[in-house]
Amino acid sequence: MNSVIGTVVVLFILGVLFFLTGHCFCGVFHRKERPSFQLLVGAVVFFAVFSLIELPAEKLKLPFHMLVYLELAAFAAVLFWCVRFCRKEGMLGKKREWVQIDAVTLALILLIGLQVIYGMNNGVRINGFDTSYYNGHAINALYTDTMYQYSARSGEFIGSESYVHDGYPMLIAFLSKIFWMHPLVMANRVLACVEIILMNLVVYEIAYRLSNGNRRIGNWTVGLHAGISIFCYQFDEGRGFYLWQRTAESKSMLANLYLPLALLVLVLLAKEMGGRYYWALLALVFFTGASLSISGIFILCVMIGGGLLALLCYQRRWQYWVRAALCMLPGMLVGIIRLLL
Predict the structure, then answer these.
(1) Does residue 287 contact residue 48 with C-beta atoms inside 8 Å?
(2) Which of 112, 171, 214, 341 is the most buried (most CB within 10 A)?
């Protein structure tokens, strides 16, 4: 499974899971969304379910194999519910109408492919010390059956460590375990591709929503974004700003996925604040980002809190202060648990 074919197979399986969970999440709120948005929602739900199990398992110092069993049980339950929901909805066996691919969309897909190629093969790392933290802890979890009890860099036994960890190394280790992949392949190939593809979908959705549903503006925005990211890599002075420099780290996922997702949901919330759909989605984004990235605890708190404050004050929706507080609560609790316990 460490080959290119194995990477493609794992990406396909994860894509199906993301789409299925996203479709069911939107269906619960009786919302019809495009497949690209459902894929984004499903990815957030997938990471949120993982984080919900990983945090207590880590704090209870359970063996790594217990985390794997608990995660598999949780995802099996989610998958079973999704299948039942789709059968009840009549989705299985129903013909879907696919959007016709035009020349601009095809060029967009090719640019995303170039981003993946560059992201997989760039040789410049601006902070290998941080990268070794995620790779080392993921490898240690697989081969020692522990979580954060061995040094990620020296391999010495540490036991109870006061260092504050996030859940991203365990996500790498869990996916490596269930797909029979080496953690380096999972972090630097599979999850890097997931990040690049989802980031382009977020950019598309932001442009699409701000342009009131204009697909061509969405396509051109993603194309410009992809072209700039590839263009930056061609010059030594620009490589430090290259978007895919640190795809093995949670910081990269925070910058390229969680923060743009939070921006997207805030944009949607500004247009429709009355329903619970976008409030639930924003809470999931904050919870996931705070769980899988320590930096996300502070940055997402400031971004989402500031965005909600601006929305509520500008639109004078004082009745939604309670919803805003409840939306922030799960992510804040994760931050308190990780930083203080």
Answers:
(1) yes
(2) 171
Rounded Cα distance between 280 and 335, Å, is 18
Rama region for 213: left / alpha / beta (φ>0; ψ in -120 to 50; rest):
left
Q: Encode 86-138 in three state secondary structure.
A: HHHHCCCCCCCCCCCCCHHHHHHHHHHHHHHHHHHHCCCCCCHHHHHHHHHHH
Residue 96 in tokens: 């879907």
CA distance to 18, 24, 256, per residue, from 85 (Å): 15, 7, 31
d(C-alpha 259, C-alpha 301), whole Å: 10
pLDDT tens-place values along the chain, 341 residues long: 788 899 999 999 999 999 999 999 999 998 888 888 999 999 999 999 999 999 999 999 999 999 999 999 999 999 999 999 888 877 665 666 555 667 777 877 887 787 777 766 654 455 566 788 888 999 999 999 999 999 888 888 888 766 788 899 999 999 999 999 999 899 888 998 898 889 989 999 999 999 988 888 888 888 888 777 777 665 555 554 455 566 778 888 888 899 999 999 999 998 888 788 999 999 999 999 999 999 899 999 999 999 999 988 888 888 888 889 999 999 999 999 988 87
Paired strand residues for 150: 157
Q: Hunting for tokens 């929602």 — which residue is that? A: 41
